[in-house]
């Protein structure tokens, strides 16, 4: 299973999208009109063969807007994983009592958004793409649109290699996510294909949520630096 996309939520798309593109060396590859039915606008940017997305509410009483209120502003919103068989994952995960908040069924894309209340406060999506092996670096990824490869850059950011999930009880959260993903937990960390999920104590006053991401950079001299964009800690590695 692979960390394929991270979604942030912001009050407005700008300046978050512009800052991400400037600091990490990305271009927008897709704006998904279908998110309008949820009262949102979005932008998706390739980061190597993974993706960052920013969504922003443009209507009242949206799930994203309530999340912004709950966490006190912009921040991490969703962890999106690319697996072999989203149908099998959905069956296994819902059998644990985790609710499927939003199943997606398309000929070229299967996904399940799992209820954040059942995932210790974070929206999790486990997806698959028929005919696309997640172990292939540039495997197809419909959420990024049809021509995302034309927008890839490699002058700064090279890929997503981790996500930092925070909670007042990080041990509980790590154990829960280990069960959900059916993967071992070692020292509050779950190893995916090419990335790690880290579970840490929430110390910023914002409670449970997606607090940070790890981005592999071309310039090794940036290693160890930390950015704060869109209410999200971005660790350069």
The count of β-strands is 13
Euclidean distance between termini CA atoms: 21 Å
Query: Biggest sheet: strands, sense, closure?
Result: 7 strands, mixed
Helix-strand string: EHEEHEHEEEEHEEEEE
Beta-strand portion reads: 35-45%
Helix share bin: 10-25%
User: Roughly what is the average pLDDT, rounded to an integer?
Assistant: 97
Query: Helix count?
Result: 4
Provide the spatial order of strands within the biggest beta sheet. Answer: 2-3-1-4-7-6-5
Tell me the Rg in angstroms. Answer: 16 Å
SS-derived structural category:
alpha/beta
3D shape: globular
List the helices and strands and how they pair.
Layout: E1 2-9, H1 16-24, E2 40-47, E3 50-57, H2 63-71, E4 75-82, H3 86-94, E5 100-106, E6 109-114, E7 123-128, E8 157-167, H4 170-181, E9 189-192, E10 195-201, E11 209-217, E12 226-229, E13 232-236
Parallel strand pairs: 1-3, 4-7, 8-10, 11-13
Antiparallel strand pairs: 1-4, 2-3, 5-6, 6-7, 8-11, 9-10, 12-13
Q: Care to describe what's here?
A:
By secondary structure, this protein is an alpha/beta fold. Helices cover 16% and strands 38% of the residues. It is built from four helices and 13 strands. The strands form two sheets. Strands 2-3-1-4-7-6-5 form a seven-stranded mixed beta sheet. A hairpin with a 2-residue loop joins strand 2 (40-47) and strand 3 (50-57). The longest helix has 12 residues, at 170-181. The radius of gyration is 16 Å and the shape is globular.
